[in-house]
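Q: What would this chain look like folded?
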Amino acid sequence: MEIVYKYELNAGWNALQLPGNPDTGNRLCGPAILDVAFQGDTLVMWVRVDLERETNMRMFYCAMTGQALPAGDHHIGEYVGTATNSHGIVVHVFGAYAKDAQ
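A: My prediction, written as C-alpha cells:
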C-alpha cells in the first residue's frame, strides 16, 4: 500500500527510516521524494512510500545557502530540493543511503 508521509527536517544531518529498495539503480528509488517546503518555520519533506516494502535508513543533509558542505568521507548524496521560508531563509536538501553518507 502506498501512502504519502510528511517528515520534519532540521539543519545538518537527518536520519530517516523509509520503506524502499536501495538496489534499484536510482539511489532514491523506492520512496519518491515529492517536495520539500517550509510549513511556517518548519522544514518538511513529503515522501510517497510503499508500506509493504522493507525499510532502509536514509540520511538527508540540509544546508543553508552559503553554508559549507561536509568535507572528507561524508557524502551528502543527491540533490532533493530547495525550500525558502517567509523570512527569506533558503535551505537545500540532499539525500543518500546511510551506508553512502558515512
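The chain has a mean pLDDT of 85.
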